[in-house]
Amino acid sequence: MSHISPVLWQFLVKWLTNFALFPPEASKIAPQMDELYFFMVLVSLVGLTLVILLVLSFSILYSRKRHPVAVQIEGSTLLEATWTIIPLGLFLIMFVWGALLYFRIYTPPANAMNIYIVGKQWMWKAEHPGGQHEINSLHVPMGEPIQLTIISQDVFHSFSIPAFRVKREAIPGRYTSVWFEATTPGTYHLFCTQYCGTEHSHMIGDVVVLSRDDFKKWLQGSTSGASLAQNGERLFASLSCTACHNTRPDARGPSLANVYGSRLTLSSGQQITADDAYLREAILNPSQHITQGYAPIMPTYQGQISEEGVIALVEYIKNLDSDYRVQQTTASTTLPVENEGKSTATTPGTVKP
Amino acid sequence: MSDSTAVAHGAAESAHHEHPPYQRHHFETVAQQFDATNFAMWLFLLTEVMFFGGLFTAYLIMRNWYYPAFVEGSHQLNVGWGTANTGVLILSSFTMAMGVWSAEVRRKGLLVLFLCITWILGMAFLGIKSIEYTEKWEKHHVPGIHWSESSFLNPRSDPEVYKEYHDKPLAPDMADKTEMYFFLYFAMTGMHALHMIVGISILTFMIIRAQAGAYTTGHVTYVENFGLYWHFVDIIWIFLFPLLYLISRY
Amino acid sequence: MSEQNYELEHHEGPHIVSPFLYLAILLSLLVATGLTVWMSFIDLGEWRIAPGVTLFWNPVVALAIACTKMMLVVLFFMHVKYSPKLTKLTVGAGLFTFIVLVGMTMADYFTRAWGRW
Amino acid sequence: MSDAVTIVNLPDQSTARIPKMNYLSKENGLLSWLLTGDHKRIATLYLISITFFFFIGGALAGLIRLELLTPQSDLVATDTYNKLFSMHGIIMVFFFLVPSVPATIGNFVIPMMVGARDLALPKVNLLSWYLYIVAGGMMIYTMAAGGVDTGWTFTTPLSTHYVNTHVITTGLAVFVAGFSSIFTGLNFIVTIHKMRAPGMTWFRLPLFVWSHYAASILMVLGTPVLAITLVLIVLERTIGIGVFDPAKGGDPLLFQHLFWFYSHPAVYIMILPGMGVISEVVSTFSRKRVFGYTAVAFSSVAIAVFGFFVWAHHMFIMGISNYAALIFSLLTMLVAVPSAIKIFNWAFTLYKGSITFETPMLYAFGFMGLFTIGGMTGVFLGATGTDIHLTETYFIVAHFHFVMVGGMLMAFLSGIHFWWPKWTGRMYPEKISQLAAVVTFIGFNLTFFPQFILGTLGMPRRYASYPPEFQILNVFSTAGASVLGVGYLLPVLYLTWSLKYGAIAGNNPWQATGLEWQVQSPPLTENFPEIPIVDHEAYDYEWLERQREKEVASVG
After folding, report:
1. D6 within some domain
2. A93-116 burial, b if ≥16 CB within 10 A, otherwise e?
3. Contacts of residue B57 in chain D, CB cutoff 8 Å?
4. Domain range spanning residue D270?
């Protein structure tokens, strides 16, 4: 064969060595997803075989040659009921099974480590809590639940890791989240699957799963000097947030210590949990997110902070468990103003593995 | 009407019977023709309902999100003009219905009269609408091209509205969203006005035809169907009026 | 479906409505317009269903009046009251699909607040 | 061919003539076509126009597959590739699939099937074709001027703020094409309600009419929502209205809701008429009434009704509320059932039939197999859990090509071959068309089946370049596409040939029961010399037999 057509030979070799029907199963959810997938494939195959068998056998048995005169049959309620109820039952099983899986994938566990993902034309930026930045790659430890909080800076993107069987749309103006727990070390594809413009197909990268120790080493090796929360703190000060969000008795804004995850009552009377999405909205569109008892005087920061800046602020507020640091910053002179959220973008953060 | 039904029955008995001139050849009877075109008009109105449906959906969602902005945006509209316009449009619906009635009882003079009144009322509606639009332009309330938020950041700068409603200044981020209210205001009333313009153009043509006696020979389909369209446009306004003008006026 | 054979079903052509009825409808429409403007200047209060979920009565009343006006126009000016079932069905189908569009879209927006998603 | 393997019953070729008076010969000259009110002529105009757009869309598809032969984007640049798939999608969806069966075959046979002389509104029908042409002209202009690269889904804010191609003209073209489809649907509904011949009750209507009725409801109620959405996009691009712009407080997800409110029912607009064709063909070539007529009829209506409740399943990963995802997923499962019902009913129509295997039947078999796969993989995507992994990959591309191309295009070709003798008065050549059907089937599977595996492996859709390990399957797919191309070119060639050289078909070459087969081919402009009085159900082969005996008796 190889001497008949070298190209064809190469092709065949390539096919046989690379042939795969499924991507690797590298997360905890992947085998569960595949179980449902196999079940569906099985049902489809049975259904398809049934249809093919029926059509083929009837075509042979009742071809004009063998069966010159057709017998007129009205129909059969029993049969109609059969092929209504059985598919319906199967579909409902798939629905319930699928829904369970869906909730599992989109409900992160409480102890998950949070990594922020910002999508923009045409790259993925990952922000680790330790201040490590990555572009078009994501390093994660094995065996630990990782939550991704995803947002887009411009158009819709979609953060997809086939080997983990997870995918979530990056939406402009809103956080979405997804979580996974990697199980096998290795390098996997990271895709943008939502069409996002010219270089859509170049918005790809690698997800690197490391053992816990390797991950620790990687974290140390890629540190940018300041953690995400520290960047946030700097920004917090430079935007003069401390002018109101301080602990003085006449403070015009609420204290932000321990606010994350708490139950807040808004000025509209609505009760909400202060999560990432709430914090983001409260910074950008404050008037609808005022805590009860405070005047709606907070200016909007829409257009003044980049998504990375907002992320740094959110991370800072999240980790704020006492007012001590705020008092410190309030007391000291503020750091040089780095507006437009450039403070994070300019840090030498991009670390290639 | 009576002799046209006679013709209809006659035609039903034999396909080769003499038809009235307005019966199209592929219909068996005049009644069938009337029914079919009437039904077609209703289906067309169905598509119109869904056409506006998209705008109403957008409106309801945005209103829920940015209620304070919608309240103050709405206060900038002139209820007087809005009410007047509602009255004008309802009146024009009435005259249109009377026009259909005149065609049914074959009174050519009355038909032309009612169609003319409808035409005038339609123009009056557009006139009032353009006064309102001009006012919006002058107040810098045309989003995008001629826009300023100052009357929402500082309601006292607009004493006329202020003395009525004593609006509190909106927070800057909410004041931004008043632009959304005016987007939807212009999109919805603009789309409605466009339907009015189309209606008035058809009406102009119909008045000429009615003058020539085209609709008083028992062939009311055209007038009836146009009436349906006109009433539909009226109904859209009946909803636009409270949704856009009457938000939290107390 | 309702209508069967063509000739059997069909009758006298369009029903002719009395102008006085039209006049009555016109007056009720104008009264309803006045009513809706008048009501909008009165605070009808609100119903606190749950903390943060409030139903204001003013828009409800305004929309109820608008719906009534619509029904008057549809039934009498547009002759639906005197029209065959098919026309009524068509109007119903339009309203139904409209409600599906608005209702199911809104359902998504409202239930987003229920969870952290 | 012996009598045992075919039902084709042609008149004696030495004496047979095409009837002198028919809708084609009635008037001559270009104007008589451009100003015609005749549904058969408008159907012909439509057939020519959509074939034209099909081949433009097909050429774009060919370029896409060629580009994907290698992992790098080497044949065309990425933005050219983006324009290719965008215009392929827009042209195929709005200019081919939506009008394909309804505006051509539906237009041609529905008035005859219900026993009418024409559609209820012939002028509106002609207007619909003109709108289509205007829209098509705008689309051609867009292509000539440099194309559009938003994808056929016009996703905001990409389409409104981040591309600088011809979104406005494309949007308006689709808007106009939408109204063309609204008018076709409206015309069908009115015709089916108001123009039925005496005795033609609802349950005597052929299933083709039922499925078109269901599709028409979707056209009339769904399309306007797309229209207003496109208007909002155009306004956003021209004067900056911000309803979908997150920077101005608008919501891009609202666009998704409104867009899919039409575009999901749109897939039923595309597939339902095809299902109607299959019902006719399967019945005719097995000489049997369709098994469970009422079930098939009502399943069409059920698809139309449920079709409106499922649109958000395109948005499961887009951040809709999880509760909404749950409801929409459940409803999606419900809408899958009527399709299953149809498949099994067609299969059982064959039971105890007397089956022959002419080209339309071969395409119909192809439809049943491919549509089953397409439908089942739809369930994969409708179940929320698996949707996360499979959506936005080649799996979804393969899924909708199985439904749209494997389903609708197969049905379209089946229908074209089936009604060709009625349309032109001449038969297509049987052997080569059977070959074309088989080639199409093989080419199709080779093209699109590998894409299921690609999707499962995670290859995203709309990628101009891809990781090298996906190449093998892409090579298969491209190879298949070239086979498929041959399969589509063949019918154009031999059908054109048959216009002049095909055998004279006579009134009823298939010995089918539909009213359209009881008149001459090609039919008279007014269809029936005398409006028929219907006294039998659809697919009543015994009635047909009695008719023939009567004829023989009167001639004898």
Report:
1. no
2. bbbebbbebbbbbbebeeebebbb
3. 254, 257-258
4. 30-555
The pLDDT score that the predictor gives to residue B19 is 67
Residue D206, pLDDT score: 95
Contact between residue D109 and residue D419 where contact means Cβ atoms under 8 Å apart: yes
Do the Cβ atoms of C48 and A269 come within 8 Å? yes
Give the number of C-D residue pairs with CB atoms closer than 8 Å. 52
**pLDDT given at position A345:** 37
Q: Which residues contact D504 (CB under 8 A, 6 or more apart)?
A: D10, D11, D13, D16, D17, D18, D425, D426, D427
- Residues contacting residue D131 through CB under 8 Å, at least 6 positions apart: D176, D177, D179, D180, D183
**Contacting residues for A82 by C-beta, under 8 A, at least 6 apart:** none
Instruction: Give the pLDDT confidence score for residue A230 in this predicted structure.
Output: 87
DSSP β-bridge partners for residue A169: A158
**Interface pTM (ipTM) of the complex?**
0.90
Please count the structural domains in chain D. 1
Amino acid (1-letter code) at residue B224: E
CATH of region A113-221: 2.60.40.420
Any domain includes D8: no
CATH 3.40.630.30 fits A228-345, yes or no: no
Are B64 and C109 a contacting pair at CB < 8 A? Answer: yes
Residue D15 falls inside a structural domain: no
**pLDDT tens track for D452-462:** 999 999 999 99
Q: Which two tokens stand for residue D366?
A: 């192809």
> Cβ contact (<8 Å) for A83 and D340?
yes
What DSSP element (H or E) covers B141? strand B141-142
Q: Which residue has the tokens 């983006």?
A: D82
pLDDT at A351: 35
Question: Hey, which residues 50-79 in chain C have their CB within 8 Å of chain A?
Answer: 51-54
What is the DSSP code string of A318-353? HT---SHHHHHHHHSPPPPP-GGGHHHHTS--B---
Residue D134 lies in a domain: yes
pLDDT < 50 positions in chain C: 1-12, 116-117
Enter the CATH code of domain B35-245.
1.20.120.80
User: Which of A174, A244, A268, A287 would you mutate first to test chain B, the one with the most B CBs within 10 A?
Assistant: A287
CATH of the domain at D514: 1.20.210.10
The model's pTM: 0.92
> A68-100, pLDDT tens digit by residue?
888 988 888 999 999 999 999 999 999 999 999
Closest CB to A268: pick one of C52, C113, C117.
C52
Residue whose entry in the numeric block shows the structure tokens 């209205």: D241
Closest CA to B160 of B80, B84, B67, B240: B80
Which residues lie across from D158 on neighbouring strands? none
Question: In the structure encoding, which two tokens stand for residue D451, read together?
Answer: 């894409």
Whether residue B172 contacts residue B153, with contact meaning beta carbons closer than 8 Å, is answered with: yes
In angstroms, the CA A305 to CA A239 distance is 9
Q: Residue A139 — φ and ψ, nearest 5°?
A: -100, 130
Structural domain spans, chain B = 35-245
Give contacts of A97 with chain D, Cβ < 8 Å: 383, 385
Nearest to B61 among C10, C14, C109 (CB): C109
Judge contact between D295 and D345, C-beta under 8 A. yes
> How far is residue A296's CA from residue A287's CA, in Å, rounded to a whole number?
6
* A337: pLDDT strictly greater than 60: no
Q: Helix (H, G, I), strand (E, B), or coil: what is residue C37?
A: helix
Q: What is the mean pLDDT of each run of 10 residues along chain B (250 residues)?
A: 37 50 78 89 94 94 91 91 95 95 91 95 96 91 83 81 80 86 94 96 94 85 93 96 88
Contacts of C83 in chain D (CB under 8 A): none
Is pLDDT at D248 greater than 50 in this prediction? yes
Token pair for B225 = 């169907």
